[in-house]
Design a protein that fits this description.
Order of helices and strands: HHHHHHHHH
Structural class: mainly alpha
Oligomer: single chain
Strand content: under 5%
Number of strands: 0
Shape: globular
Largest sheet: none
Length: about 250
């Protein structure tokens, strides 16, 4: 069989490893965002209520009672109101940062198969991947925040500015141009770089340690243990600024 034929016979992940990684990471991030979005929505509602506390009486109900109240008063599907820009954001952010990290680790920083990877190289890869991923995702992040702010305007009795995600994107583009889509990108990139410095570094370091020093193999158990360690680090390092889907 010719080399071209052998290449075509390979599974798709082996023929297109980076594209496959992007697609799988984006799908995983989208599912995680959809599952956890009601928690993010109730957190935002509580924050908006806190900001509006100086005005009329606000029904502080706590996380679970706020979620139940939204479901009863507005309908269950309202718990996922605004999920579209959040999913868009994570498809871009998670896909880009994962592909970038693996490319930097394997092709630029020179990780050798079966050998330990220096911690400082993992840190460099994590910081760079987080910053690059957030930079590309900044327009979707901006639209997500703007859509969430519509809830505050509704509580204050102000008219809504956007009819939907695509209208918000087009309006921001028409008013601020292409540069307007990256408004506020610097602090967001800095935050993402710091979060991924701990996030990706911890995950990859723990996984490599388990593979090299235990009987575990590269399977779901190893990935799960690494993910748990990553999330604990995320909570300790980033605290309340940790994104719910950054791990």
């Amino acid at each position: 069989m010719s080399p071209a034929g052998e290449e075509r016979s390979l599974p798709l992940p082996e023929r297109w490893p980076r594209a496959s990684k992007f697609a799988l990471s984006a799908c995983a991030a989208a599912v995680a965002e959809l599952v956890t979005f009601p928690l993010d929505l109730t957190k935002t509602r509580l924050q908006i209520q806190g900001e509006a506390a100086a005005g009329p009486a606000v029904p502080y109900r706590g996380m679970l009672r706020t979620a139940a109240g939204i479901a009863q008063e507005e309908g269950v599907w309202k718990l996922w109101q605004g999920a579209t820009p959040a999913v868009y954001r994570h498809i871009v952010y998670t896909g880009v940062r994962m592909v970038t990290y693996e490319h930097l680790r394997d092709s630029v920083l020179g990780r050798a198969e079966g050998e330990s990877f220096p911690l400082w190289k993992a840190v460099v890869g994590g910081v760079s991947a987080g910053a690059i991923g957030q930079f590309f995702a900044s327009p979707t992040d901006l639209v997500k925040v703007q859509m969430q702010m519509e809830g505050k305007r509704k509580l204050e009795g102000k008219p809504l500015r956007f009819r939907g995600v695509h209208h918000a994107f087009l309006k921001i583009l028409s008013e601020g141009g292409v540069r307007g889509l990256w408004a506020g990108w610097v602090p967001n990139v800095q935050r993402a770089a710091l979060v991924n410095m701990g996030d990706l570094t911890t995950y990859d370091t723990v996984k490599q340690f388990l593979l090299l020093n235990t009987t575990l193999v590269d399977n779901s158990v190893t990935h799960s243990v690494s993910s748990v360690c990553c999330c604990w680090q995320c909570l300790l390092w980033a605290g309340s600024s940790c994104s719910g889907n950054s791990c």
